[in-house]
Amino acid sequence: MRVEPPVPAPVLAAIRAALAAAGATPVDAPILQPLNLLLDLAGEEMRARLFIVQAEGDAEACLRPDFTVAVARRHIETAAPEGRYVYEGPAFRAAPEGDRPEEFVQLGVELFASAASGAVEADAEIAGLAWRAALAGGRSDLTLWLGDVGLFAAFIGSLGLPAALAARLTRVAGRPRLLNAELARAGAPAAEPGGGQLAAMLSGLSETQAAAMLEEVWALAGVEPVGGRGPREIAARLVRRAEAARAPALTEAQAAAIRAFMAISEIPAVGLAKVRTLTGKAKALDSALADWDARLARLGDIPAERMRFAPALGHAFDYYDGLTLEVRSDALGVDRPIASGGRYDGLPARLGGASDARAVGCVVRPWRAFSGGEA
C-alpha cells in the first residue's frame, strides 16, 4: 500500500487552526467500516476503490475510505440532537492509477443539527472552513467550486416529468456517470419486459417473494453467493434495474435542458443568472435560489473570481442532497480536490438516526493543500 508522505508540522498546524474555528469536539472513528453500507451509498463500482477485509464467518468490512459515514454513525450513537465534530486520521482508497497514495491523512469537520437550525448559515460556515483550511497549505492557485444537488432536484421538478423518471434522475443527481447514461437514453422507447430475464421475473413480486425465488434459482444452479449481500438486497437491485429499463425516457428537449443546466460553470452571480434564465418563472426554484443569494453573501470574504458555481457538481457518494463543494488547485486538476464536502440531511436517517436531522461537513487533504506536496 502506497502511503502519503508526511506534511511539515507548521503546515499541518495551520490547517488544524483553520478548522478549529468551528469550535468542534475532536472525535475518532473505527477504521473498519461495513462494506455493504459503503457500497449502498456509493454503488457497486466503488468496490474496486476499497480495501476489503473479512474474518472467517463474518460479514465483509473495509478500511474507511473517508470519515463522513463513520462520524455520522458515531453521532447517531450519542442520540444527541446536535453535534459538532472535528477529526484527523488516515483514510484508505485503492488507486488504480498506480502512482497515487492509497493511505492518506484527512482532516475534517461535520456538523449535525435539528431541523429548526439554519441550513444556509451552516452551509456557508462549512464552505468557508474548507476554503480557509485549504488556503492554509500555502497554494495560491485555489478555486472554491460550489454545487447543489437539491437545486438540481428542484430543476428536474420544474420540467413536468413522469414521477418515476423524475425520482430516478434526482437519485443520480450527484453521480455524473449514471446521469449521463440517462441522458444518453433520451428519445428511446421504454424497454419491453425481457422474456425470461431474471430481473423481469422478480419485478412483479414482493420483496419476500423475490428473495425466495432468487434463493431457489441459486439452489437449482448450484450457486453459492459470496460478498456478503443477501438475497433480499440483490433481488431489490435487480427489480430496480428492470423497472428503470421499462420507465419512459427523457424527450430530446428535456435532455437538452438538463445538459444546459449541467454545463453551467461560472462565477456565482453569472451562474445563478443562467439558472434563472433556464427555469424561467418556475416558482419551485425561487426559495432555493434565494438561499444561494444568502450563502454567497455569507461568503463575501472570498473573492468572486476565486469561486465557481456549477450546480451539477457531485461526489462519489450519493448521500449528498444539498450543497456540494470542492476546493481545487489548478496544478492538481479536477480529479484531485484539496477539500470536498457538502450537505447530507438524508444520511442520518439512512443510518438509523432522526428523520429530520440536518448534516453538513467538509474534509481536507493536507498533503494536497501543502504547496510543496502533491504535484
Could you explain how this protein is built, in words?
The protein is α+β, with helices and mostly antiparallel strands. It has 2 domains: 9-156 and 265-369, Bira Bifunctional Protein, Domain 2 (BirA Bifunctional Protein, domain 2, 2-Layer Sandwich), CATH 3.30.930; 198-246, no CATH class. Helices cover 41% and strands 16% of the residues. The chain has helices spanning 9-20, 35-42, 68-78, 119-135, 149-157, 163-171, 176-184, 198-202, 207-221, 231-246, 252-262, 268-279, 286-298, 347-350, 366-369; strands at residues 25-26, 32-34, 52-53, 61-63, 83-92, 103-113, 142-148, 307-309, 323-329, 339-343, 358-364. A hairpin with a 7-residue loop joins strand 3 and strand 4. It is globular and about 65 Å long.
Regarding CATH, which class of the largest domain?
Alpha Beta
How would you spell out the order of helices and strands? HEEHEEHEEHEHHHHHHHHHEEEHEH
Q: What's the average pLDDT? A: 87
- How many domains? The number is 2
Helix/strand layout:
Elements: H1 9-20, E1 25-26, E2 32-34, H2 35-42, E3 52-53, E4 61-63, H3 68-78, E5 83-92, E6 103-113, H4 119-135, E7 142-148, H5 149-157, H6 163-171, H7 176-184, H8 198-202, H9 207-221, H10 231-246, H11 252-262, H12 268-279, H13 286-298, E8 307-309, E9 323-329, E10 339-343, H14 347-350, E11 358-364, H15 366-369
Parallel strand pairs: 1-5, 7-8
Antiparallel strand pairs: 2-4, 3-4, 5-6, 6-11, 7-9, 9-10, 10-11
Helix pairs in contact: 1-4, 4-13, 9-10
